[in-house]
Here is the input.
Amino acid sequence: MTLLSAPPQTAAGPPPAAPAPLAPAARMLPALAAVYRAQLARAKVARIPLLFVATFQSLGILVMMRGVVDPGDNAAAHTVVAGSSVLVVAFVALNLLSQYFGRLRATGGLDHYATLPVPAASVVLGAAAAYASFTLPGTLVTAAVGAWMFALPAAHLWVLLLVVPLAGAALSGLGAVCGLLAPRQEIATLLGQLGMSAALLLGVLPVERLPQPVLWLRDLLPSTYGVEAFARTFSASPDWAAVAGDLAVCAGVGLVSLAAATLAYRRATTR
Here is the structure.
């Protein structure tokens, strides 16, 4: 006689719960503000000594150029003072930001930002804005000292309130691209140094003494238009339409460079 065992009975349980919906991604402006505050707090201690170095470097260039450029209302003096002032922005926004993103990529720090529910543009813009914020005091000091050394009027130094963020955005985007696309951290550092050197040589030297091929390279440098806009304000009667035109070009270049930096960030975090 064969005994047939009854099929095992399974205990009836509750139906599986539906997966919880994910939280909505952070909006652009709140995420940008959060990244900016975090970067600003992080950079307060580490970047202030470097900002002092950037300002001291620009003041040293003013002293050096004072020996070869006559003071007074002339184009060479305008270029020297404006170029030395914007060089502070180039040192921090281009050089240091390139090194920062290069180090993040090399050490895996980008993985932390990639896991945050924030737009990619907010990370790039927040870091760029934080680095550029430290350049305004040094730029103002350099411009004031340069105006005094070269006997130039200081009535229009307020234009730096427009030049610094616009030139800072353009140079920060370029620095972020260099740091994010460089295959190694050392190359990111090298690119940042080369960019700062280009801003030094092409922004400070008087235009009329440069050969034509160098002038073409100068036109490709984003900070050139900030230097030109600020240099025009030292004239006895500034051409404000030309100043506005240079600032508009600087703003357009800044938008393009920051958009390129955002694409480079997405590429670096998805590889």
Q: What stands out?
A: The CA atoms of residues 147 and 188 lie 34 Å apart.
